[in-house]
Amino acid sequence: KQWYQRRVAITAGGARSVMAVDNSKIVDKARSVIRSNNLSSKIEVVKGKVEEIEVDKKFDILISEWMGYGLLFECMLDSVITARDKYLKPDGLVVPNRASMFVSAVSDEASYQHRFHFWNDVYGFKMNDVVPDLYKEAVVECVDKDNVISDNCGFKHLDLQTVKTPELEFSRPFQLQISSSSKLTALVVHFTCFFDGDVSIVLDTSPESETTHWLQTILYLKCPTDVLEGDVVHGLIAFNKDSTVKRGYVIKIEGAISRDSAVVGKFNQLYHLH
User: How far apart are CA 26 and CA 23, in angstroms?
Assistant: First the structure.
C-alpha cells in the first residue's frame, strides 16, 4: 500500500513527532542518546506503563516488538492493544499488522533421551522424581528442520488492527499429516508475523527458517509413539494465561494419532511457558 510505505518512510526518515514508551531504566539512556543526536524536538520518551500514562494526542503508526516465546509469552500484546485503542488514529496502522501461530510434529529421540532418561542414572544416583515436572515444561529451544515430520498447521491468526484482549486465551483444533515414518516425540509451536505492504516483510520463526531470537516452543510427549507416513495427528491446542505466574501461559494439548480408522496413540498434557 502506498499509504503504508508513505507513513513508514515518514517514521524512518523525518517524522514530525515520535513518542516512545517504556517502564524500565533504559528510558534514561534513550533520552541521552536522543539529546546527543539533536532529536529532542522530535522524539519524546515517556517512562511508565502504557496502561497508566496519559497522552493528549493520537498517532499514525504504532510499532512494537511485543512478541514473546510461543508468540504470546510475557503478555505484551495486551499493552499494545491498550495503546492502539487509546492512541492510534482511526485510520492508523499497527506494525506488525498480522500474526499467525502454527504447530508441527517432531521426532528427535536423541534430545528426548538426553532430557528425560538422563535422570535414570546421574553419577550413580537415581533421580527419576525430577522427570514428572519436566514433562510440564514448554521448552524453548531450536528445532532442527530435519526433525520435523509433518506439515505445519495454523491454529490461531491475529489481526493486530482489531484483535481484543479476550481473544488471547483460546482453544483451537489442529491436524497434522505425518510425512516420515519415525517416532513422534513432541509437538512444536512457532509463529509468523506479517508487515503487509506493496513490499511485504515476513518474520518466520519456524524450524524451516533462519534461527531467530524466539527459537521454537517444544511440547514433549510423555509417551512417544511410533508413527508411519500418512498417519494423522489431530486434537486441540489451548493457550491460557497462567494465574500463578505473571506473564506466563499454560498450554494444553489433547488429541490422538490415527492410522486409517484406528487410533494408535493418545495424548493429554499441560505445559507451563514461563
Answer: 8
- Residue written as cell 510427549? 221
Among 44, 52, 54, 74, the active-site one is 74
* H or E element in which residue 247 lies: none
pTM, rounded to two decimals = 0.92
pLDDT digits (tens, 9 = 90+) for 224-258: 999 999 999 999 999 999 999 999 999 999 999 99
> CB of 227 within 8 A of CB of 158?
no
Of the residues 65, 167, 169, 208, which is catalytic? 65
Long-range contacts of 155-160 (CB under 8 A, 24+ apart): 155/101, 155/102, 155/103, 155/237, 156/100, 156/101, 156/239, 157/98, 157/99, 157/100, 157/101, 158/77, 158/98, 158/99, 158/100, 159/97, 159/98, 160/80, 160/84, 160/94, 160/96, 160/97, 160/98, 160/99
**109 catalytic per annotation:** no
Statement: residue 138 has pLDDT above 70 = yes
Rounded-to-integer distance, Cα 1 and Cα 234, Å = 38
Catalytic (active site) residue 169: no
Name the pLDDT band for 1 (thresholds 50, 70, 90): very low
Query: pLDDT digits over 100-135, tens only?
Result: 999 999 999 999 999 999 999 999 999 999 999 999
SS3 at position 50? coil
Q: What SS3 class is residue 56?
A: coil
Per-residue DSSP letters for 112-180? HHHHHGGGG-BTTB--GGGHHHHTTBPEEEPPPGGGB-B--EEEEEEETTT--GGGGSEEEEEEEEB-S
Which cell goes with 19? Answer: 513518542
